[in-house]
């Protein structure tokens, strides 16, 4: 009891929850994600001519442009290029060494960003189509002042195409060439004097002819035009293998349909040279890719990479630009397994890096001699593309290559060593859950067994359990000195793992993957498994059981994987009903909820109740006695439709049933486990209703209606203990209302008078269902600076610690934890708090709630796209785990009442031990002296 009291007092300490600088990245972690990198728009680039250090630039399938540090894989800056309302188009990114800008495009927008720090230089929108290709003009014009190169943009619209030259510094159009012939606008390429616009002309019968239009570089005027007869080989635009960007590789290449020959045209000439493919493998060629240098002064050499189902080989070709002749130089041999090739150049020399399952090899384009060879670790993921940077020092070469793997993983291999891996598929996380440590679960199971046996049986079981535990004793004794030593020498913050603060988190993504992240080790990936080949995995819930975790899908199927390895243990087949949610009941059963709100089966517990929502906006209540028809149905009034419903969390301990007021009287909390908070909106007249329902009877216990609500803005709600909160964007409707984002907090009490339990006092329990008394509700509204997309509440083991309201803020890309006392609806309005109120912790109400810098759990990090915030208790009452996902991944520990049960970092155990030793030594020395002195005194006195 005394301990509880101590905890309680500690919990009341003012909640200044800022973390120390040295705890950043220690108790929290952040994966800043980009999405799967686009292979054609990922490259190494030196952002400034003053330094040799290069960065990795990419644009992802989510149209996020990012610069990544090749040393550690950290994102240095990133920008979201997609704009609301712009048609989707593949992201394109271009940059060149010595240019201080990278130019990116997505949909209708082109924008230029400083390469070093990602600041916007200009942005341009083209309404006549989406950007199909971009190139940077490599040659600086005489008289150009800035270091930025002009951009060539190809816009592809409905049956039209346009080539535009954009000024490097301002993005303004210098000239444009319009093509209204109905051709497919395909690519652009440039030479020192001309711009080539390459389009695909639909041939009479089938296929496409390649049409090349040469434009004057300075004026954009058409100088000549010709077509290449390729219609028999090119059925779709995707059949064109390669179009070079500039004079480093002025080529157009395609293969015939049977993969017998490759046709190569040097841009600017009409000749088409046919190269026979020497098929040395005994398998069909599945894929042909062409790799050529991009840097202006590189030799015009290129490599053709042939991939079969079993292996791959490559041929290297040289182009004679004078005669436009293409000749084969040498071959890279057929190797079984996967293989990817990357090109890089140093001055004029071109290097090809080939990475296979077992090794990384560098060759020069000039001859087949191997310049460097390293062993690489085999990866289970198939690689589909790579980019590389080769550094030559005298005779030695070094290489770092970024390998793009399936499922968005991105891996940097330096001289054969994997330096880092970015798991970009986590950006599509749709569900997550914590894993209980297995040891604890076993103990829980054993205790459950004991609870169900007779007194004697339980006693014997317990004696046996302790006897079994004895086998670990020698091991434990052996480790003891080590543990004592390490606990004295290391600081406390690292040492909390045994208190459940580093539980793994299981995350399922839309792309059919399951990840296990170690929250104790900066959220590092422990394992990941492609469980399903899909891009729309409709995960409804994840349930962990000892040793395994089951992912439930909306089609009624489920997959169970081993929690420590990620191996698939079992699968269940889909059913023909589509489910909107899947609940896991306490007895390990699951129950599906169909789109119309009905249940897939009965739940065994006859006393339990379930509340569901239906697709047409009703709320249904079910009892375990009858799973066919609902016990009650709630239809919100005045044309409103239910958009969400929340309940108290499954783990929601209440430390005290009353609130002690300053004058020692008590307000009793209205604690009902069966509450549901329903949010309904009417999109036409812009009203929103928040209804508190009793889940057993369906009675409305409390209703709040808000007018002037913008239903297109996020509406979030949460409920716990005896209070709930919701937020919305409200417009001015009358004098008393305010325009802005509002956060409303309501507390439920049994009675408005202190020391009064209302009608419940006599009832003793809730059995009198129909006459359930209504709660006394105290509400207060706050105006907040920005929208809240999702709310949650910190969870602690016993609920003693003050709670924090966790809010995901999509506008500032952060998560705040608002301390509960700040949101107390009983804060005095228009006057200062009396002494009694101040004693309770109440202070004067202010309508505008500014988010304090200390509340930001994400601190200065840019945690973007968060859709869900989860909280989980630990064995430490003070500490709550937080995990957020949906875009980035973020995890931290929250201590809303400070870490009162943990010794801080500044507490030195070593110092304590030394002090005790010093005291002991002092006492041993001083005690005989003191005794002698006393004896002497006695003698003197006599
Ligand atoms: C860049 O590298 C070259 C050769 O590798 C060297 O000569 C030059 O000094 C380096 N520049 C800087 C700024 O480090
Ligand atoms: C990028 O911005 C667009 C438009 O504002 C938005 O729809 C999209 O969700 C953003 N993407 C990410 C990953 O945040
Ligand atoms: C390559 O050779 C194998 C066996 O000789 C054959 O099955 C395959 O079709 C050939 N591929 C091509 C593209 O000719
Ligand atoms: C999970 O894998 C581990 C290691 O391979 C194994 O010891 C354990 O039995 C597996 N658990 C289940 C439930 O299959
Ligand atoms: C204690 O204070 C509350 C208001 O803070 C008041 O309603 C109540 O009557 C007071 N009780 C006593 C016994 O003074």
Automatic annotation (TrEMBL):
One cellular component term from this protein's GO annotations in UniProt: EMC complex
GO biological process, one term: protein folding in endoplasmic reticulum
Chain coiled-coil ranges: none
Keyword Transmembrane helix among UniProt keywords: yes
Domain ER membrane protein complex subunit 1 C-terminal per the UniProt entry, residue ranges: 720-939
Membrane topology: Single-pass type I membrane protein
UniProt KW keywords: Endoplasmic reticulum, Glycoprotein, Membrane, Signal, Transmembrane, Transmembrane helix
Complex formation: Component of the ER membrane protein complex (EMC).
Protein name per Swiss-Prot or TrEMBL: ER membrane protein complex subunit 1
The species this protein was found in: Penicillium malachiteum
